[in-house]
Amino acid sequence: MRRRTLLAGMTGIAGGLVAAGATPAVADPRRRVLHVRPGGSVQAAVDAVDGPGWTIVVHPGTYREVVKVPAEKAELTLCGATCDPRDAVIVYDNANGTPKPDGSGTYGTAGSATLTSAAPGLTVRDLTLANDWLRADHPDITGTQAVAAYITGDRSAFDNVRFLAHQDTLFVDTSALDAFDRQYFHRCYIEGDVDFVFGRATAVFEQCHFHTLARDVDFTPKGMVFAPSTARANPYGILAVRCRITSGAEDGAYKLARPWVPSYETTAWPSLVVRETRIGPGIDAVAPYTNMREAYPWQSMRFAEYRNTGPGAAVSVPENRPRLSRAQAALHTRETYLGDWRPGA
Length: 345
Description:
mainly beta, 27 strands, globular, disordered N terminus
């Protein structure tokens, strides 16, 4: 099933797709709240925000547009009008290799994102963020990364948000190479196939659900869940706590992670800790990690696990599953990663 059809069906809104460009209604300017309804535009609401502390409420519907939140829109809250993230969907279909309309080149990986935010203090909840670009529809495009959300800026928090795409679904990045921006994901659902949670941010995932997609290829691994690119100076990279990992593919078809050392930051020292997480059979338990490039073997990276369960967490080759001691695990918690920031407090 094409993802676009699937998304429209999930919203329960007849006709589904809405046009961008309409001005949103302001419910009560004294409360600094903007409402976006079918026929309106989330980007228009973002553009209307004139200072910190605004809330944009997105009502049920499918909003087919690219949304960019600049750094000056600090402390913004973007939320669905209901508690079900399937009701309000923001979706577009740019990929890395998609040509820009002005002929200036292609979008690139970060530029392909449906939602881009550089705003510090961003809060997103009860929404679906999706990129429904499909490889099969574009056999001429080799840059197949298609991002649902590209997030920079410190203190970005996501609660009950669905991130849907295939390759490079969620780009957790920082505002600068030497910045240690923090991001927090709670009760989120993230699906994809290749490196679909990646980047150099300090990113904590708590009680989240990662799902690897079925992929019609004749090779394995079919993909990887994580691809951190943590700066060497940053003691904390990606942390998954009390999560679960499921798969729509056959058993052992996916790797848990591979390190990403970008060509623009060859000193990166990727960090990933997965702890107290149920790992399903879709992850290769014998060899859960692999290399992106042989020059940067995963064994030299900061990869570790602690008290994971499930068939994908079985330890049959100990040297392939670096594990933390109890004392080491005490250093890898939401509190240590986020420091003085308490999301939701």
